[in-house]
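User: Predict the structure for this protein chain, please.
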Amino acid sequence: MYYYPLFLKVEKRACLVVGGGEVGARKVKTLLHCGGLVGVVSPEVVPWLAKKIQEGAVEKVGSHYEEHQLQGRFLVIAATDDKALNCRIAQDAEKRGLLCNVVDYPQEGNFILPALVQRGALTLAISTSGQSPALARQLRQELEKRFGMEYADFLELMGAVRSRLLAESQDFRANKELFDQLVQSPLLELVRRRDRDGVDHLLRTVLGSGYSLKDLEVSW
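Assistant: Here is the predicted structure, written as structure tokens:
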């Protein structure tokens, strides 16, 4: 079986994680990072998660899972150490037409979570369709070495350029050529070296005056 790859917008959407251990906490952390409204069901939670609940960033929905806790949810992640309970959560979610991931038993849910490499706005997702999590883990480690944090800064800069350029010109073809020129230029290497003067010179050469890190309000 092959999974259909996509990226979900969970910002301001109600999500539920059943399980408050280390695995559940990692799922909560990712959902929070993406702007999800996260509720947790677990009799006990790890210290990091307890702190988030105390701060109000995460809602403690209950100590034990009950089907009504799925009401109004966009997606649910079953992350307990009880396989039978995880399967029941998946069945309840399926009846309600909800997205559901089951940790360690992906075939029980209707979506899987890939191994991720994140560098700011850049997200690289690796999936083996559940056939070999070990290989996905190895590939993630290789990509972490290949793609450094300079990609986060580069994308912040490109996002600022894109917003300003599209506001100034509706010439799609011309804008595309400029974006391609920037991506194919030494700009990424200049960002990696933190060569601010070099970045400013290249931006002005390609885009004209008025384009610099200061003009674009990009600081790193």
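Residues 150-168 form the longest helix (19 residues).
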